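Risk register update: the risk of archive-format incompatibility is retired. Evidence:
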Amino acid sequence: MVKLRLRRKGRRHFAVYDVIAIDSRKRRDGAYLERLGFFDPNTKPSTISIDPDRAIYWLNVGAQPTPIVKNLLSYEGVLLRRALAFKGKNQVEIEEAVKLHKEQVIERYHKHKVKRQKRKEAKLKAEEEAKKAEAEAAAKPAEEV
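Archived output:
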């Protein structure tokens, strides 16, 4: 069975991945059938580059993507492209839908980034208040004695 999965590259603690089509019995970094693109998780936002035509070809001939590769294909709009092609949409409609999808993905990324930042600030504020309350509690028994 052919799988679409990640192949690790890069140096220690700074991994970069290739998205490849490979026989499922092969090693993670073994000989592969075709390189479809790459994924760099070290940049913010992560860099994803996948050739949609070749990815759709491999999906159509039965290649099974791993869960992470499936998410990458979804972010890049490859799965949307394939679904719309099956529905009989023309190339212009597909490109418009993929462009809209990519804008939504970027918007979602920024929305989650703001949420993470607010959560981090709230956590720091709560820690400061806890330290202040602890210091006040420690000072009261010293005054009573």
